[in-house]
Write a structure and sequence with these properties.
Blueprint: H1 3-14, H2 18-31, H3 43-50, H4 54-66, E1 70-73, E2 77-80, H5 85-109, H6 112-123, H7 130-147, H8 151-158, H9 162-173, H10 184-192, H11 196-218
Antiparallel strand pairs: 1-2
Helix pairs in contact: 2-4, 3-4, 5-7, 5-9, 5-10, 5-11, 6-7, 6-10, 9-11, 10-11
Length: about 220
């Protein structure tokens, strides 16, 4: 089968552009940790695994490089981006600025429905860790921002980059259980009782703990 025929067949199966299919596949594998930072990426192997030509894979890799998830080194190859200490520090500084304020506002503005959704998110968190646990806890953080009832804060939260998401996912995988005072439960308890300053401080402790654990891991 020629590359053009393969591309046409793949496009027919997916209903998406081939570049988008390659982009979605690579991005998902990077953010899920299936491709760890520093892992080399072969354009040819990726194209073969997807059953498409190399051109859409090359285009997808160029987009991911622009977004900071892939690094291209002439004559050396293409690799999943490594996170530096600066990446981690700046990522968590931005998260802290947005999410501590969100926690304070959520404590002041949350509805009973907001509390029910947060409680459900925490009760459904898998105990085994991994991306399932990360996804449910990410839902919890999203619910806090929604409960803050501030459109611009929501836009700031939604506008965080994949590189920040990657840093957060890696931090969540580091085997460093947070102390009780920085747990998600402490954040929820403060929001539930309407204590804005306590919610803000609990969120700050939580984020700083994970940032410090990841920085230690990267040393």
């Amino acid at each position: 089968m020629t590359s053009r025929t393969a591309d046409e067949a793949a496009r027919g199966r997916s209903g998406r552009s081939l570049r988008q299919m390659a982009y979605d596949s690579l991005r998902a594998d990077i953010l899920a940790g299936d491709l760890a930072p520093g892992t080399p990426i072969s354009e040819a192997e990726r194209a073969e695994s997807l059953g498409i030509s190399r051109t859409p894979v090359r285009e997808a890799m160029q987009q991911l490089a622009q977004e900071g998830l892939i690094e291209v080194f002439p004559k050396r190859g293409t690799f999943v981006a490594r996170l530096s200490a600066r990446d981690v520090r700046e990522s968590f500084e931005l998260r802290e600025a947005v999410e501590t304020f969100a926690a304070r506002l959520a404590a002041e503005r949350r509805s009973d429905d907001d509390l029910d959704r947060m409680r459900a998110a925490l009760s459904d968190v898998p105990t085994a860790g991994g991306d399932g646990q990360y996804a449910r806890l990410a839902d919890f953080h999203q619910l806090i921002v929604q409960a803050a009832q501030n459109r611009y804060l929501q836009q700031s939260f939604d506008g965080t980059t994949d590189r920040i998401d990657l840093a957060s996912r890696l931090a969540a995988r580091i085997p460093a259980p947070p102390p009780p005072e920085s747990s998600h439960q402490a954040i929820f308890d403060a929001i539930e009782r309407g204590d804005g300053p306590a919610a803000e401080e609990a969120m700050r402790r939580h984020l700083r703990h994970h940032a410090e654990a990841l920085l230690e891991h990267l040393r």
